[in-house]
Structures are given as C-alpha cells and as structure tokens.
Design a protein that fits this description.
With 490 residues, this protein is mainly alpha-helical. It contains 22 helices and no strands. α2 crosses α8. It is globular.
C-alpha cells in the first residue's frame, strides 16, 4: 500500500532507461561512420564503373542525415497517430534493418565484395533508413521521457537523454577500436589502385572491417526494439485517445494513486488548451529557435565526431582510434558538467563560454595542423574544441528548444527548429571532406586552415548571437516566456 501511495521510482527509472537507449542508438548511429569511413572509401574507390570522388564520399558519410530530416519531419505525425511507444518500436526496427543492410548491402541483389555505383546507392538507402530511426528517436525519446517523468525531476531525466547520445558515440568509438584490432586504416594515397596496392595490414579493414562496424549496431538496436515493447504508453497520449483508466494506471505506478488523480486532471485540462498561430509571438521567437539549431551544427562539431580517426591519422598519430576513444571519454565528462551546472549558471553563460572555447580550439587547429612538432598542440586544440561543445551547444540547445517556445506554439515551432538542425548537420557533414582536402597549390594545407578557421569564425558569431538575442530561461516558467515574447512585440 505504501508503494502505491508513493509510486515506484524503480519502475520510473526502468522505463526511462529503456527510452534512453533510443538516445544511445542516436549517438551510436551518427558516430559509427567515424571508424568505418576510411575503409568504406577505399572499398568504393576501387569501383570500375564510376569515380568515387571526395564529394561522393562526403555525401555517403552524411547520407544518414537525409533520413534524419525525414524521420524528424514524420515524428509528430507518427507520435500522434500511432503513439510514442509504437513510434519508438518503429525507430528500433529501422535501426536494426539499417545495421544489417549497411553491413551487407549486397544482400539478394549484388555480388559480394564487388564495388559498383548501384551498390553505393543501395548502401546509402540503408544508411537513410537508419537515419529515419535517428530522426524519430531524436524527437520522440525526449518526448516520451518528458511525458512519463514527474515534473520535479523531468528536466534532469530529459537531460540524461543527451548524455546517452554522447555515451553512444563513446561506445561506438570503443567498438570500432576493438573491431580494428591489429589492423590499420588504409592510406589515402593507396585508394583507387586496387586491393593489392593497399598495405596488407589495411586490406582486412577495406574488405571486412567497415562491415563489422556497421553491423555491430544490430545488437543494441535489436535490444531496444525488444525492450520498448514492455514499457507503457505515455499517460498524455492515452488521455488523448480517451483511455483515461490506462493513463491513471501508469500514473499511479509512477506517482502513487492519490497524486495520480491530480496529475490526470491536469493532463485532461492541458489537452483542451487552445493553440495559436505560429507567428503569434513574433518572427523573432521563431528565428531565435531556428538559429539555435543552425549554430549547433554550423560550428562544425560533427566534422570532428564523424571524422576524428581520419583527422588524427592525417596528423601522423600511430593509433588514431585510441586518441578518438580518449576524446570520447572527455566528451562524456564535459557533458556531465552541463547536466550539473545548467540550473546554477544558466543557459546563456554556458553557451557563450562554450562558443569562445570552441573558437579557441578551432583557430588552434587551423594554425597548427600539419606543422611538424606541433601535433600535440593540434590534438589538444581539437579536444578543447570538442569539450567546449559538450558543456554548451550539445545539451543546452535541446534544453532551450524545449523551454523557449510558448506552450501554444511549441509543437510546430520545435518541429521547424529540429528540421533545420538536421538540414545543417547534413550540410556540414557532407562538405567537410571536400573542404578539408582543398588545395590552392600542390601539397599546401589551405583546406585544413580554411575549414577550421571558418568554424572558428562561426563560433564567434554564435557567441554574439547568444549575447544579443537569446533570452535566459533559467528559473522562468513557460508563462514567463509567453510574456517575454509578447513584450518584444510592443
């Protein structure tokens, strides 16, 4: 009887843990390319019926992001029509299909190990399928957690979803490292000359290694799709389809029976809340939300996360995968900094400090990359750049997007902001390799300093944007935000 009155924290944390697995898969899927992309590039560089250029490789490395845009665009429709739980099951199945298909894109239709343009198209289709799973998970996992969590710990539990994303990236760095084992990544100058021209220690990476890296995602994807079947649907969705008794049952298990009735009544009142036109609070409100998403990607972080082993390898480091794993650990630690300080320091200070830290790191890479004897300075600059993102633009953008929009326009406004996030993620990820390899003359490092110099400038602009236009939301209610945006219309 006591547990029924108080609710079960273990029950709450168990279902949140399952939902957080979706965040882990989000991070796993977006970062698996980091260890696989060089072997993949060497494999398709040996195709006989087309030329696998840097532009093609940039597109292939980022093709999952097309699916992310599609998945995030469909997330609102699916979550409303099918429910949060069934939408997450679909996301898990998409992850699973993508993992197996990316590992063996020849399945049923092509000869194994024979690179062709049609096989490249099939590989990208499987990556887009996985991206759709990421897009769904990125929108619906925080929604699910927010709708089952009690209000007094909702912010903390939703923040752990961001931690799971970064942890998923760290997990795949370790997985890629252990899959590679004694083998090495192929050199750029060896590509396109046939498998025999590739260093013997790298040949396994080209024929098999990248396949195992993509295929490894099938394990957590299958686990997620299975476990999500055993969690309840969210009370808010159950109320929306008229299943109040089921909603009360879930609320009682989480909050206790007496409090559950009060929460159910509040949910029913919220369900009848009016909606308003998107521009009710002015264009500035929507602009700020969109630009938060744009800057989160335009600062160039995914160029580091997706291509870290390539960058460290080009610096001449003997074991770039080990350095990438070390960077992943640092990313985890600095994400925790954000989780435990955002309510103390506020959103704006963290974003501004993170922007300036990223600018320092990006300019450090631009100045030192490729200079003999400065490899450690370059590596340190990359770590500063990445760590600065992890305590600022990584988690804080998601917090602000959830808070900054008034209640009556939040659904539509968040959908627009998240769509812009994935669009710019695709732009940055697909342009990195061609920009990084640009040369004004034979053998110069123009592409290296131009790319990171550009990211550094964008970081400075991001800091100015936050300082001048982004309101501080720490300690403010959603009603306060409505009043704030309305006051700017006068």
């Amino acid at each position: 009887m006591s547990q029924n009155q108080e609710g079960s924290k273990s029950y709450l944390f168990s279902i949140v843990l399952v939902a957080v697995l979706g965040g882990l898969l989000f991070g796993y899927d977006t970062a698996v390319i980091s260890g696989a992309e060089k072997g993949l590039q060497a494999f398709f560089s040996n195709a006989s019926d087309f030329s696998y250029t840097d532009s093609w490789h940039g597109f292939t490395s980022a093709s999952a992001l097309i699916g992310c845009i599609i998945g995030s665009a469909l997330s609102g429709f699916l979550a409303t029509r099918l429910g949060r739980k069934r939408s997450l099951i679909i996301a898990g199945l998409l992850f699973f299909i993508s993992a197996l298909g990316s590992m063996e894109p020849e399945f049923l239709f092509f000869k194994h190990g024979e690179p062709k343009f049609s096989l490249l198209i099939m590989f990208n289709i499987y990556r887009v399928i996985g991206g759709m799973g990421v897009g769904l998970a990125s929108a619906i996992c925080p929604m699910y957690i927010g709708e089952v969590a009690p209000s007094n710990i909702r912010g903390m539990l939703v923040s752990w979803n961001q931690f799971a994303i970064i942890f998923g990236q760290l997990v795949v760095y370790f997985v890629n490292f252990f899959i590679l084992g004694e083998h090495i990544q192929p050199l750029v100058e060896e590509m396109g000359k046939g498998l025999a021209a590739i260093t013997p220690a790298a040949q396994w990476t080209v024929t098999t290694g990248w396949r195992y890296m993509f295929g490894s995602e099938a394990v957590p994807a299958g686990l997620f799709a299975l476990l999500i079947c055993f969690v309840p649907e969210t009370p808010r969705y159950l109320v929306s389809i008229g299943q109040d008794e089921r909603a009360l049952g879930v609320l009682s298990k989480i909050n206790g029976s007496s409090k559950a009735k009060q929460i159910l009544q509040n949910i029913k009142e919220t369900m009848t809340e009016k909606t308003e036109r998107l521009m009710t609070y002015g264009a500035l409100c929507i602009f700020v939300g969109i630009m938060l998403s744009v800057f989160q990607q335009a600062v160039g972080i995914n160029a580091v996360l997706y291509y870290a082993p390539r960058i460290f390898g080009d610096m001449g480091m003997e074991n770039p995968m080990m350095v990438t794993v070390f960077m992943g650990v640092i990313n985890i630690l600095f994400t925790l900094v954000a989780i435990f300080t955002v309510e103390k320091w506020g959103r704006k200070p963290l974003l501004i400090c993170g922007s300036l830290g990223m600018a320092l790191g990006a300019f450090g890479v631009a100045i030192t990359f490729g200079h003999a004897g400065l490899e450690m300075v370059t590596a340190l600059s990359i770590m500063v750049y990445s760590a600065s993102f992890m305590f600022s633009w990584g988690p804080i953008t998601w917090v602000l997007i959830a808070e900054i929009f008034p209640n009556t326009i939040r659904g539509a406004a968040v959908a627009i902001a998240v769509a812009f996030q994935w669009i710019f993620n695709f732009i940055v990820s697909s342009t990195f390799v061609p920009m990084f390899n640009m040369h004004l003359s034979e053998g110069d490092d123009f592409g290296h300093w131009f790319t990171y110099g550009l990211y550094g400038i964008i970081c400075i602009i991001a800091a100015i944007f936050v300082w001048r236009l982004v309101p501080e939301t720490k300690g403010k209610t959603l009603e306060d935000m409505s009043k704030l945006w309305k006051s700017k219309l006068k």
